[in-house]
Fold this protein.
Amino acid sequence: MEHIATGTDVPQSSTANPARAQLAQRNTGLWPSTLMTLALSSIAIGITWDISWHESVGRDTFWTPAHMAIYFGGVLAGCVAGWLAIQHTFIAREAGRDSSVSLFGARAPLGAWIAIWGALAMITSAPFDDWWHNAYGLDVKIISPPHVVLGLGMLGISVGALLLVLSRQNRFPESSTQGSGMFIFAGGVFVLLGSVFLLEYIYPNLQHGGMFYKVCALMFPARLIAIGRSARVSWPTTRIAAVYMAMLCAIDWILPLFPAHPKLAPIFNPITHMVALPFPLLLVFPAIGIDLILIQTRGASGQLWRIIFAMLLGTAFVAVFLVAQWLFSEFLVSPHADNWFFLSDRIWGYNTSSGDWHHEFWDRTADRFNIRSFIVTWVLACVSSWVGLFFGDWMRKVRR
Amino acid sequence: MIRALVFFLCLFALTAQAHIGSPDVFYDGMAGPYPVRVTVRMPGVVPGRAEISAHVQTTEPVEVSFLPVYSNTPITNTPPADIAQLVRGETNLYAGELWLMRFGAYSVEVRVKGAHGEGAAEIPVTSVAIRQLPLPSLLGKILLLMCAVLVVGGIGIAAAASREAALPPGATSGKRERWKGFFAASAATVIFVAALAGGKHWWKAEENVFRRHLHESAWPDLATEVRVAGNERVLQLAVGREFFKNNGRDSLIPDHGKLMHLFLVRHGSRDAFAHLHPIRKQGYNFEVALPPLPEGRYDVFCDLTFEGGVSSTATNSILLPPVPGGEPNPPALERDPDDSWANTPLTENSAATNGAAIYRLPGGAQVIWQSHAPLRINQDAALRFSVTDATGAPMTLDPYMGMLCHAAVLRSDGAVFAHLHPSGNYSMAAQTFFAGKIAAKADAEMSDMPGMDHSMHHMPTTAATSTIELPYQFPAPGNYRIWVQFKTGERVLTAVFDAQVSQ
C-alpha cells in the first residue's frame, strides 16, 4: 500500500484558518441540501411517472402531473442553486465564501454550479426536443439526442444535489455521521435515475443477453462505489442499493393502483391501469460484496492500489450481479411473477402487443451472452469501478 | 422492449402516400344523416398530429368527434374519440387533432351526433413520413449559443472542482491546485469535444434511419418496358423489385375493381393522356396493351392499394415507339373495358367565358369548369364541373368504375400528382377495408342505438346529374393540368383544364 490516509488531505500549498473553518462548519447548509434532495426526488418520481404515463395513456400535455413533478424539481434545483450563487457571490460573509468555489469570478458551492449547469442543459433540451419531435416524429425510445441532453441536465442536477449534500456531510467532523442519511438517500435516488436512463436495456426479457450486463456494468459500479466510498456510515453501498430498490418498488406498487386508459391508437394492449416499470434490479447483492471490499480497503489510496481495487470490485460486481440477476430474471419472465409484487404482467404498455414473448428471453441469438460479452462486461465493470473509486476518493474531500 | 418496438416499426416500413406531393386527404359525403366535408391535413412525420376539420352541412347544433382506427389492431382497441371544437366565428365548422402513432393505414372516423340521429364517416389515410423539417436558423443559433455556454461552463466547473472543492474552509488554492484545475479543464475539454463529435455522428445516424423511412416522392420502385407485339405496343410493369427486398410484401387489393390504376401523361406538352388498368401476370408484374397514343416520352403514375389499407403511387417514364404498322392481328392482350385515353391539345378546345373555363369535346359536348375565385394553396380548389351536349342541354352522367367522375391533377414539374373522385381523394379500397373491419362493431351498436345510421356513407351518389364537384385543395403553388373524366352514353369523355395556383 503506497499510502495510508490519516484523514482529509490538506493541500501543501494551502493555508487553513481554524476559526474560519468553524464558521464554515456552522454554515452547514441544511436547507439547501434538503431542498436539493427534494428536487432530486421530485425529478426521479416525475421521470418514472412520465414513462408510465407514456406507456399507459400515451398522449400528454405540458401540464401532466408527471411533467409538473419534473419541472418542479428542475425549477427548485435551479432556484436553490441560483440563490446560493447570489448569496456566496454578493451577500455572504467570509464563512459562506469558504464553502464555495469560484467560477469566472462568481462564487457558489460546487454542487450549486453543477445543478445550474444541469438546469441550463434541461432548458436547452426543451426546444431541441420539441424540434426533434416535429422533424423526426415523437420519440419511441428514451435514448435520443435531445433526451440525452435532458438526461445530462438531470444528471447535472442530481450530481449537484449529491455534492451539495456531500459537502455538508464532509464539513462535519469525520467521526460524525451527521448529514450521511441525506447523502445515502440522495445516492439511492441517483442510482434510480441511472436505472431509468437504461430502462430500454434492462427489461427482464433482456437479462439473459450480453447488452444488459454490459450497460449495467458500465452504469452501476461507478455510482455505487463513488457514493459508497465517500459515505461515512457502515454498509453505505448496500444502503444506497436498498434505497433505490425501496423507492422503485414503492413507485411500482403505487402506479398500477390508478386507473388509466390509452388515448392514442393503435392500442395493442387495452390496459386499464397505469403501467409499472420493471421490478428493480438486485443491485443490493453486488452492493454487499462492494461494501465488504470497501471496508477492507477503506484507508488505501494510490494509483496502483486503485487499479487493483477496481479490478477486485469489478470482478465482485460481475460475479454476484450476474448470478443473482440471471437466476432472478428466469423467475421474472415466468408466469409466477405475474402479480402485484413482481409486476411482470403490469409492465406492458398499450402499444405493446400481447403474446408468449412476454414470457420469453429476447435476442438470444443476436445478443447472446457468451465468453466474449462476459469479458467485455468484466472490463467495463472494472473501468466503472475505477471511475467510482477515483471520484469517491475525491468526493471524500469535497467540502465546498 | 422499446428496441423491440422500434424493430417492429421498421418491419412496418411499408409506408405510403396515395399520391405524390399531395398528402392531405379530402372527403365529401355523409356521416349518418349529415352531409360533411372533411379535410385531414397529414403530419409529415410519424408519429405526428393530423389536423382535421369537418364542415357539417346543417344549421342545427351537433356534436362532432374524431377517432383514429388502426388497420392492424382489433376494432375494440380504439381510444376514446376526441370531441371536435367549433371553430371560433363559424357555425358549422369543427376542428381537432389526432395523433397518428405508427406507419401504416389508419381510418379517421368522423362521427356526427345531432337531433336527426348519429352517424360516422370513415376516411382512410396513410401514415407515413414524407418530409424532413429543416432546423430553423434562429433555433440553430440559440442551440449553438447554449451549447457554447454549457461547454465553457462545464470546463470551468471541472477546473473549479479540481482546484478548490477539496480545500478546507479558509484555505486558498496554491500552485498545485491551479495545475490540478488546468488538467481537469483539459480533460473536460477533451471529453466535451469527444461528446460533441459523438453527438454529431449519432444525430447523423438517426437522420439516416429517418431518411430510410422517408417517402418524399413516389414509392415503391417501378420498372417499365414497352415491347411491340404484332401491331400492338404492350407496357410491362414490375412493381417494387427493390423495395420488396427489404420490406414486407402485402397483397394488392382492388380499388374500384382494379388492382392497378395507371395514368400516362405525355412528358412536357402533357397533351396526351390515358387512364388504364393493367392486368396482373404474376406477383407484382403487370401488362397492359397501350392505346393509340402518339409516340414520345410519357410519365407513368400507378395507384396501388395494399391489403391493410395502405395505398401508394409509383412512378416512372417510358419512351413510346410509333404505332406499329401492318395488318391488324388478333390482340395480344385483352383491353380493360374501363380503359380510356385522349389526345387533349388544350389550346384548341378550351376557352373561358364569364370566368368559367369550357372544354369542347369532339362531337360538340362541353365540360364547363364553373367560375371560381383565383386559386390558392390549401383552399378549396373549386373543382365544380358540368357537362352539356352540343345544344347546351345537361347530359346525364353514368357511374364509371363506381364513381360519376375520375380526375387526375398534375403539376407541370411532376412534383404533385393526385387522383380525385367526387367523394374525395382517398383510396376506396382502403375505405372498404375499414368499413368491413368496423361492420361487426357497427352492427352491434346499431342494435343498441336505433337512431344511428351506419349506411354505406362512402358509396357515391348515383342520382341522375350533370354536375359534379371534386373536394380538393392544391398543396403547392404552380401550374397544374387537370384531366376530368365522365362517362355518358357508354363513352368516356376526357376534358382537360389548366390551373394557376398561387401561394
Q: What stands out?
A: The first helix of chain B runs from residue 2 to 11. Confidence is low (pLDDT under 50) at residues 1-17, 449-462 of chain B.
